[in-house]
Amino acid sequence: MKKWISTFAAILIIFFVTACGETMSEEPFIWPESIDGQSPFYGETISIGLVGGGVTRNFSQIAQEYMRLNPGVTIEIVSFGNNFHTDTVSVRERIGLELMAGTAPTLIDNIFMDELNTATLVDYQHTTTAQYFVDWLPLMAADPNFNEDDWFMNVFEALTRDGRMLGFPISYDGSFGSTYIVVNATIPELLEEFGDRQSISFSEMIGIHSRIAPVFDRPMYIDSKFDVLFAVEHSLGNFFDFDSRRVEFATPEFIEFITHARELTSPWRVFGDDTIMPADLGNRELNAFESQNYLFRRTWAIDFGIFPIFEEEMPFTNPALLTNYHGDMFINPFNTMLLNASASDVERALAMDFLRFSLTADFSILSRHNHEGLNSSSILLNRVWMRRSFNDWIEPIWIRHGWNLLYDQDEAFNIIASYALAAGQMPMHDARVPEMVRITLRDTLHQFHDGLITAEQTANDLQNRITLMLMEMD
User: What number does CATH give the domain 19-175+332-375?
Assistant: First the structure.
């Protein structure tokens, strides 16, 4: 308990949440107008605070091009570190101090705002913290060049809380690192049961397993990456809701759920390991093993080119989006940008203009960091990432496994991109919960997975600990 309080306090102290003040009320934003044909941003300067990870590592190059196209504008890059080994605590402390002093950058990449690089909504949307940041929605609505057809608007909707969106999403991943489920095509009964559905949840997969598995003379498991943790995370809304402070772990339903999930977990499963190798579907040995032991596989859209472009039949086919029990695709933001509330209206508009440029202009192809499994809120940049991942992984890996290309590469890429587009248009749900809640779930369910505590002890422990956490947060 002491460890949890100190960790949570560290997060909030970073932003000096003892400061006075109320969250700023947002009004319709008035976009600055050109004067005598001159850009409204002429003579303006904004700064961008970055740690050299994720897509924003390319912002220095993009800023140079933006300034070339917009004379009189200055974009300053402020470095908080150079790689993923940066001391994240020091970064948060520095940002917190600068926010209080009024010297923080105009734009701040939140990728390193917490221990696990997954800053949650509560980290910067707490009422005493949110006063330091600006809602992006009025800026998006006012920007004359923001075209909704260029974006996956479902991403913005999923990350909006209480009518405000404080983190502008640049990149996100789906369903805890993988977006799609593919079906074991060697089982005719499974293909018939699965039908032509376009999406599926873990709860539905459990139901299908209960009907299909008994016909086999050997144990058949749901998925090599399925365990009680992923089952709970994807069904968390049944038992926990952060906004309403609903906590219902100490119930017969939860006890039955985790007991059943553990029974369905493969004995080869390493608890909580979400390792997913790109182009796994091109590995014959892995396919042969999994087709004998699992009904489904979790994977990425980038793998789907394997279905139309290789001559051999694939053991896993019929990709469907992985969703929660409501039919929403879970997403986790990877890079989001926070806008400093101390920025003037013109600086805010300039920040919006630069972000839009960086994600939708042709020059955005500079974002060449390899993002297997990630998507962008920008449709254009998403295709850039998909193309790069396709070029880097598909041919060399699959040919190394002995597959023969049959289709034109552009045709195969377009098939893959169509799956990514379908994912971006799905109903979405922000998968994040306060980080300490997620850590508590992982630690407690790990003990249950290993047989160290009973299902009843697990349920009571989660009920008591998470209820106390929410009380402390309030």
Answer: 3.40.190.10
